[in-house]
Amino acid sequence: MEAPISNASTKRIAVVTGANKGIGLEICKQLASHGIMLDVADSSSVSSLANFIETEYGKLDILENGFDIFKKLLEVAQETYEKAEECLTINCYVMKRVIEALIPLLQLGKSPRIVNISSIYGQLRFIPSASIRKNMDEIDEKTEERLDEVLQSYFKDFKEGKLKDNGWPTPYATYKLSKVAMNNYTRILAVRYPSMCVNCVSPGFFKTDINYDLGMSRSKKGLKAL
């Protein structure tokens, strides 16, 4: 969703991804009551979005990444390699590309912040392997390279049917790993851009179509803190 902005330099500009339904949509509704936001859930080009924001507003203040792929609980337990690849691509690599494309605009913003919507499944305790946990927990100059190596190792073990033997999280292995990777990348960004407020947030177990409305409450009640 787009709207014209007057005096853009005095307004706070936000981008919300994954806003077609659920938590992302509710964040959009709450942001819209306070200012202007852009819903890029259906954007065909991240670069064109960045160009649009630069041309129209000249900066970006808030980037909220709420998009991910997590099929309904009963479906994701029997994922194929193709679905696993799709999940990690969207939840990790696409998120990273969006952030990298918009970082220059965020650096021009007022008190810029990045909020990545994570999950309780993003906790390291869900990964049985101590070596994988160690690689996903350390933050140094080689962290990003090491993160990619971990994801590639996961793909290899998935193809060979060795997920359980090699200590990957089960069930919902790919989704859990994607959220752990998101948390790790968020920490990388926080170190790399100390002038920005960079966080990942687990909003809680809300009622959505993913969990067949079995959550504790509707997203509207629990997202005001975001």
Automatic annotation (TrEMBL):
Source organism superkingdom: Eukaryota
GO terms of molecular function: oxidoreductase activity
Segments passing through the bilayer: none
Keywords, in A-Z order: NADP, Oxidoreductase
Stored InterPro entries: NAD(P)-bd_dom_sf (IPR036291), SDR_fam (IPR002347)
A matching Pfam family: adh_short_C2
Gene Ontology cellular-component annotations: membrane
Similarity annotation: Belongs to the short-chain dehydrogenases/reductases (SDR) family.
Protein's name in the database: Uncharacterized protein
Naturally occurring in which organism (per UniProt): Asparagus officinalis
